[in-house]
Structure formats: structure tokens, C-alpha cells
Specification:
alpha/beta, binds pyridoxal-5'-phosphate
Length: 367
């Protein structure tokens, strides 16, 4: 049985008729950028997250760097971020000129809040809380640290649309929250997309102007901005997706539970869910010291897997200039050697999942 690590076609097929209808509606409407669909999606998505404002932008990376820039964070400033994160989290910090200060992850693969305070210096301006793999960071601790030290909190929710901490939706805790609607994300579009969500009306307005060449009125350019807009077709399709997001998240939660119940291999450490948090399972990430052998075994059985992520940002070529050597963040580097993302997608059948479980459980250990 050939099983892909992700399967966007299945996901599309779950609500194909609705997507097709919306696509035709937008195509026939004759208005493709900054229109009714975007305005409606922004309002609906802000409501979903439980924040006052949403500003659609071109992608998640733009949402990140534009947030930092418009919050006035740049050259000479430091932003604390988990070392175990996606490269875009770090680029979002460095593009506007600030310096990432890395903190090791906890057993939930997210920033270890107990290690944040020792990373704070007089240059620290913000904490970027990346809710990796669909699971919330410890937002009580992070918001408390931020309050005590006068820091801003930006949330990276690119993998966690609709997950909660203490019953509150992620993206509604910080001063700004950044979302990606890249097709593989929980609330995925059919192309690139992103959003900044915030309760700060001033920041929302700044984002709105900045994303459109720094222009509020046609041909009146107030500042140098960007061209970073969520187009009408993506916004319309995202409205359809958002209408099903809770059921899609619940489906992945059921799939995750089936993995958690079924996988019993002694060499495979299952993902843990933080007390007080829930997880929308953007990825189902196991840890094993036999990662490469397990991946090869599964590949032989035509079970596709992915590694999130094989090279931590601090060791990537892009960030050699920061001067971090191998060994600087041992827990993060260990994770890069041990993580494996099992197939996880909406529309996965019980037969497919049972096959994956059986193949993991019959892994001989690679020796
Ligand atoms: C996908 C992702 C981003 C970047 O989003 P794009 O839309 O691809 O630019 C940022 N942070 C995290 C955690 C992501 O997973």
C-alpha cells in the first residue's frame, strides 16, 4: 500500500464541490485583488481566532517580518525564539534587521519557557512563540515573562490554526500573531497566503497600508511598503476551508489518537501533548535514535515520511553569520537527528493508518 506523507488531493476532494463553486464565483466576478472575499475572510478569520483584526498578506514569512518591522523591532534589537523552529521563523526576525536569540525546546518540541529568562538582555524586545507541529507553547508562562520584562509577544501560528492553550485559541494571546495559509498548513489555501492577526487597531492599520505599497489611497504613497496581498481567489477558497476547519482539526485529532493508541514500538517515542493545551496535529512527529533506519524501512514499505527539520536554523548556511557552532543547542540538534513525521492528512483511511502502524511496530530496529 503506497502512502504519501501528506495528501492535498484527498483534502481537496473532501469539499471539492464547494471549492469549485467558489473558484468560479471569484473568476466570474472580475475583481481579483483587495476585494469583498478578502474583507469577508479577514473578518471571519479574526472571529475564529478571537481577535479584533486580521490583515491578509501574501504568505506567512511576510506576516512575520512585517509584524516585527511595524512593531518597531529591527537593527540592534533581539528577539527570543525556539532553536527548534522552521527557518521562516528566524528569517521573519532577521529580515527587518533584528537578531534571533535561540532557546532550546522542551519535551513538547516547543520553546522551553523555563529557559527564556536567562536569554533576556537589555536589547531583548520580543518573544516569538512558535506553536510548532500544531501544539501551543506554554502561553501562561510566556505572557507572564513578557509582562515582567516589558517585552512584546508575537505568535507564529503557521502550524496551529485553531489549537488552544487553556481553552483560548492561539493567535489571540500576543501583540500580533502570524499565520501561513500555504497549501500544506491546517488552514491551507491553493497557493500562497498569510495573515497578521492582532487586537491592536493601530498595528492592523499599519499592516493594511504597508502590504499595499504603503498606500491608503490610490497613488498616495505614505511610506515605502511591500506588495504583499492575499488575493481574492485564495481568500474565497480560504473562507470555504475555514468553514470546515474545526471538523478537519477534529479528524486529525482522531487520526493522532489512533497513532498514539496503536504505535507501541519500544524505540519510538510518541509526541506528548502539553497539559492545558490541545494540538491540531499539523505533523505527527515521533522521535527515535534509529530515525534514518526507520525512515528507510518505511520507505521500503512505500510509507512516505518527512523530517521536520533536518538542519536547525542556527546550523543552516543562511545563519553562519550568527556564529553558532554545532553543539551550541544540543537538544535541538538531537531533535534534528531523531524526528520523523509520519503520514498525516485529512481523508486518511483507517486501512492506510493501520498499515503505517503495523509497519512502524514491525520495524526490526535497524541493527
Ligand atoms: C510555513 C511556516 C512559516 C512560513 O509561512 P509561508 O507561508 O511558507 O511563508 C512560518 N513559520 C512556520 C512555523 C511555518 O510552518
Amino acid at each position: 500500500m503506497r502512502i504519501l506523507p501528506g495528501n492535498l488531493q484527498r483534502q481537496f476532494e473532501l469539499h471539492a464541490a464547494e471549492y469549485e463553486q467558489k473558484a468560479l464565483e471569484v473568476l466570474r466576478g472580475g475583481w481579483y485583488v483587495l476585494g469583498r472575499e478578502l474583507a469577508a475572510f479577514e473578518e471571519e478569520f479574526a472571529g475564529y481566532v478571537g481577535a479584533a483584526h486580521c490583515v491578509g498578506v501574501a504568505n506567512g514569512l511576510d506576516a512575520l517580518w512585517m509584524s516585527f518591522k511595524l512593531l518597531g523591532i529591527g537593527a540592534g534589537d533581539e528577539v527570543i525564539v525556539c532553536a527548534n523552529a522552521y527557518i521562516a521563523c528566524v528569517m521573519g526576525i532577521t529580515i527587518p534587521g533584528s537578531t534571533p536569540i535561540f532557546v532550546e525546546p522542551d519535551e513538547y518540541d516547543n520553546i522551553d519557557d523555563a529557559k527564556i529568562e536567562t536569554a533576556i538582555t537589555e536589547r531583548t524586545r520580543a518573544i516569538l512563540a512558535v506553536h510548532l507541529f500544531g501544539q501551543a507553547c506554554n502561553m501562561d508562562a510566556i505572557m507572564d515573562i513578557a509582562r515582567r520584562h516589558g517585552l512584546l509577544v508575537v505568535e507564529d501560528c503557521a502550524q496551529s490554526h485553531g489549537s488552544h492553550y487553556g481553552g483560548q485559541t492561539v493567535g489571540s494571546f500576543g501583540h500580533a500573531a502570524c499565520f501561513s495559509f500555504y497549501p500544506t498548513k491546517g488552514c491551507g489555501a491553493f497557493g500562497d497566503g498569510g495573515a497578521v492577526v492582532t487586537n491592536d487597531a493601530h498595528l492592523a492599520e499599519e499592516c493594511r497600508v504597508f502590504r499595499n505599497y504603503g498606500s491608503r489611497r490610490k497613488y498616495d504613497f505614505e511610506r515605502v511598503g511591500a506588495n504583499s496581498r492575499l488575493d481574492e481567489l485564495q481568500a474565497g477558497l480560504l473562507r470555504v476551508r475555514l468553514g470546515h476547519l474545526n471538523e478537519l482539526n477534529e479528524e486529525r485529532q482522531r487520526l493522532a489518537q489512533r497513532y498514539l493508541d496503536g504505535i507501541t514500538h519500544p524505540l519510538v517515542r510518541l509526541p506528548q501533548v502539553r497539559p492545558g493545551a490541545d494540538c491540531v496535529w499539523h505533523q505527527f512527529v515521533v522521535h527515535t535514535q534509529k530515525r534514518d533506519a526507520l525512515q528507510a524501512w518505511l520507505a521500503e514499505k512505500e510509507v512516505g515520511t518527512l523530517i521536520h527539520y533536518p538542519i536547525p536554523p542556527h546550523l543552516s548556511s543562511a545563519y553562519q553569520y550568527l556564529g553558532h557552532r554545532a553543539g551550541a543547542f544540543p537538544l535541538t540538534e538531537k531533535a534534528a537527528d531523531e524526528v520523523l513525521s509520519l503520514p498525516m492528512y485529512n481523508g486518511m483511511t483507517p486501512e492506510e493508518q493501520d498499515f503505517v502502524i503495523e509497519m512502524v511496530n514491525t520495524f526490526a530496529g535497524g541493527d
